[in-house]
């Protein structure tokens, strides 16, 4: 199954209480592809400047990531720098330099247009719609967004929502988008705008999947050492949609598993700076962590009760 | 099995965006007993003033709650009043009048001293220790505490921790007590002080159980209507220990179920003001909600994977 991601490819300078990484590989498409490529091939559409380190994306290519959709343009690459608080619960953006990303107009290469699984990373919803226009007949479309677009491009965003199967947002974004502080009602509101499925990401508190028939919770993995939270949400999306594209179908049981695979990949992302953790991540480690999620959430009804679930 | 709770019995005046309750039944022992009595008899030790409405505790008596340990003293009953924010995420205390609770010195009636299951509600750790001194040989002791005691009675609290099986705290309290912002490490630190088990309550984000061998997560129940969050934590404790005392044993499987029964009772508590929801709560409703927790958290490993959990 073919899987395409459109999003940012950035150079991040990140400071956490545990160290500092300078001009490290970052961006939504990068984290997504690093995680999703554990499940199958990934096609990336993005843009980098002519200052981008020559071999920085090499490890993605080795992981069966097709970079044919990554345009290199004259100018500076997208750079973000930030500092995390001592407990990693908040971060301050020091600088955002959009560079060539400011004029990003995603062009889907001819050979990517038959792709079946699509993740629209967090970019202007007008561009996200434009990407969909270029894809022939996607089987499943997921998208991300952020407060900036919810506030500034609401009409385009609502138009986009009518065309996607799954929206991934964090809890604050779900509340902002719906105007409802209650997450269960907020998710129902979003579903009414189009997406059959909504996933609300809550960072260390886990993620909630809302489907037309039910709700599924996955906890955050209780790491004793979190090194750098950057990219966890995109790695989550990469694990989620990477898994779904591998099994090739979307139903309640597969979506639940996909959320857990996403949670696992998010938990790996934060164990090191940038996408470092994915360089040597093994399939066994992934399945192991998924088994730990099962172990962490399993309980049995009392034997005196009828079990009907 | 006999179950005893020591804690406050209060008259709460609560304002939420959905209404106001004046001098409504509140306090940790009250919420605990209201929830735990769905599982079996409960013994209460507490104090009320001579202004306490004559029949306010009548519904507890009907639920097989033994109030022989509730002293009525000359003076005013413990009163708390507070206002919740529009999204119920924060609350402001308007007034706390301790009244007769200020000099509360729990006296365990002779007929309660052989009790096997004990919950020490959130009172001065010196008094919590004093309660333990009066109980002959408890089988299982759980306790709660709060920032005020962690800060002001740290030595007594640490001494108490050496004598309890389970500490229930919220995430902020776990961090404050351990001095570690990482919850997994914070829980290990607390366990090293004595309690074999630690439960970290995270409100709408659920609860985490730490045992010597593992970790278990229960999500918050995604209510579309939350009416009044007051007492949810004590109702959680009531469901948890009420369930355990009913099955009469503490092992990994029962503790996991107990956390879910606790979560269910906490979710009922917030559906109405005060302990109102417990007045007509049925056993079927409780089991139903527990089944919904199972439904909300269940997933299967992929069939291609070996299932060894």
Q: Report the order of strands and helices of chain A.
A: EEEHEHEEEEHEHHEHHEEEHHHH
Largest sheet of chain A: 9 strands, mixed
Please report the distance between the alpha carbons of the first and last residues of chain A.
32 Å
Oligomer designation = homodimer
Q: Report helical residue fraction of chain A.
A: 25-40%
- Strand fraction of chain A: 15-25%
* Class from helix and strand fractions of chain A: alpha/beta
In angstroms, what is the radius of gyration of chain A? 19 Å
How are the elements arranged and paired?
The structure is a homodimer of 309-residue chains.
Chain A: E1 3-6, E2 10-16, E3 19-26, H1 28-36, E4 42-49, H2 58-62, E5 65-73, E6 78-84, E7 91-97, E8 117-120, H3 125-134, E9 140-144, H4 147-152, H5 154-161, E10 166-170, H6 171-178, H7 183-192, E11 197-201, E12 207-210, E13 215-218, H8 232-247, H9 252-269, H10 276-279, H11 283-297
Parallel strand pairs in A: 1-4, 1-8, 2-6, 4-5, 8-9, 9-10, 10-11
Antiparallel strand pairs in A: 2-3, 6-7, 11-12, 12-13
Helix pairs in contact in A: 1-8, 3-5, 6-7, 8-9, 9-11
Q: Mind explaining what this structure looks like?
A:
2 copies of one chain form a homodimer. In chain A, the strands form 2 sheets. Chain A has a 9-stranded mixed β-sheet with strand order 5-4-1-8-9-10-11-12-13, with helices on both faces. The model of chain A has no long low-confidence stretch (mean pLDDT 95). Chain A is built from 11 helices and 13 strands. By secondary structure, chain A is of the alpha/beta class. The interface between A and B is large, with 46 and 46 residues.
């Amino acid at each position: 199954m073919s899987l395409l991601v459109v999003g940012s490819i950035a150079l991040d300078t990140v400071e956490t209480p545990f160290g500092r990484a300078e001009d490290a590989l970052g961006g939504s498409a990068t984290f997504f592809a690093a995680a999703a490529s554990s499940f199958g091939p990934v096609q990336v559409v993005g843009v980098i400047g002519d200052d981008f380190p020559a071999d920085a994306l090499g490890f993605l290519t080795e992981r069966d990531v097709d970079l044919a959709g990554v345009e290199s343009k004259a100018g500076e690459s997208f750079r973000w720098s930030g500092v995390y608080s001592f407990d990693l619960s908040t971060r301050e953006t020091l600088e955002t330099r959009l560079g060539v990303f400011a004029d990003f107009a995603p062009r889907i290469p001819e050979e990517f247009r038959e792709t079946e699984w699509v993740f629209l990373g967090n970019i202007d919803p007008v561009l996200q719609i434009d990407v969909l226009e270029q894809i022939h007949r996607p089987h499943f479309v997921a998208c991300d967004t952020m407060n900036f677009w919810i506030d500034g491009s609401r009409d385009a965003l609502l138009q986009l929502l009518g065309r996607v199967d799954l929206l991934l947002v964090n809890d604050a974004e779900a509340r902002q988008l719906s105007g409802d502080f209650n997450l269960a009602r907020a998710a129902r509101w979003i579903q009414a705008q189009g997406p059959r499925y909504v996933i609300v990401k809550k960072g260390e508190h886990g993620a909630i999947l809302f489907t037309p028939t039910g709700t599924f919770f996955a906890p955050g993995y209780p790491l004793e050492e979190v090194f750098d939270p950057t990219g966890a949400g995109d790695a989550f999306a990469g694990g989620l949609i990477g898994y779904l594209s591998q099994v090739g179908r979307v139903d309640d049981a597969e979506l639940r598993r996909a959320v857990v695979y996403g949670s696992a990949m998010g938990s790996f992302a934060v164990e090191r700076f940038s996408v470092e953790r994915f360089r040597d991540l093994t399939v066994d480690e992934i399945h192991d962590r998924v088994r730990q999620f099962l172990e962490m959430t399993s309980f049995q009804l009392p034997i005196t009760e009828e079990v009907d679930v």
